[in-house]
Amino acid sequence: MLKRVDPPANPVLEELARESPTQRLDRLLHTSAAPLTGGLSPVALALAWADWAWHLAVSPGRQMDLAATATQLATDTCHTAVGLGESAAPAGDADDDPRFRHPAWAAWPFNALRSGFRNSEAFWRDAAYMPGMTAHHNEMTRFFAKQWLGLWAPANWPLTNPVVLQDAVEAGGAHQVRGAMNWLRDVTGQPDPDVLAEGFVVGAASAQHLRRDPLLPAELLPSDWPGDDLRVAYASYVDAFGRAVSAWSTTPLP
User: Fold this and answer.
1) Is 24:109 a contact under the CB 8 Å cutoff?
2) At what angle do helices 135-151 and 110-127 cross, to 10 degrees?
3) How far apart are alpha carbons 188 and 183 in whole angstroms?
4) Distance of CA 93 to CAs 90, 98, 99, 139, 164, Å?
């Protein structure tokens, strides 16, 4: 006779089975709020911030130290901005942040932006620590200060990133157009518009050329004059673009 073997107990399921209606209410509320806070407890974040802020408020000596550090780093940034010196932070391939290793970051004004950001990082690495804080709150403060600073890094913004600006000039904005198309597809969930990315660039170039077309009789034009072909290509792009826009406007959002 075969012996029945019961599956191992699942402690998580057993705990859920034993929870009361009020516990279930709390669990569902916390689960609903998790996407809004990135899965982090807002209470834990508030406690870490309060631990840091209260210890800073009752430590005038520490405030003086941080003020002196801020003044020194701000002076270093200003000197870099006006060309009176270079930042002491490693640059180029020696930079420990791969976002700033491209040689273009050594040119003004991007070297000043890089210097200011790296000095801000240095300040908050120091400022995030307050004597008397718990080790866990200190780690949380350092981590979130770094994350918020990273959000404002000049490498993350097109107009303050020399590598992006250089690529935009060399590619004639084609990559930015493709990125805008990808963004449109992501936020709308509409049909894939990638087919229009290259057509947009070609259409813009065609329109620019056609505006300069002298519209001379065929016998006066060179044999390889592209005017007629460009008109056909431009008309094809306009038709494809119109059909895509019509599809997007009539397809319901998810």
Assistant:
1) no
2) 170
3) 8
4) 8, 8, 10, 29, 18
pTM more than 0.85? no
Length of the chain: 254
CA-based nearest residue to 88, from 54, 117, 115: 115
From residue 97, alpha-carbon distances to 100, 101, 112, 114, 155 in Å are: 6, 7, 16, 11, 11
> What is the rounded average pLDDT for all residues in the chain?
77
Q: Which of 237, 169, 177 is nearest to 203 (CA)?
A: 237
Is the link from the previous residue into 21 a cis peptide, with omega within 30 of 0?
Answer: no
Nearest CA among 117, 184, 126 for reference residue 157: 117
253's tokens: 């959002």
Higher pLDDT, 71 or 158: 71
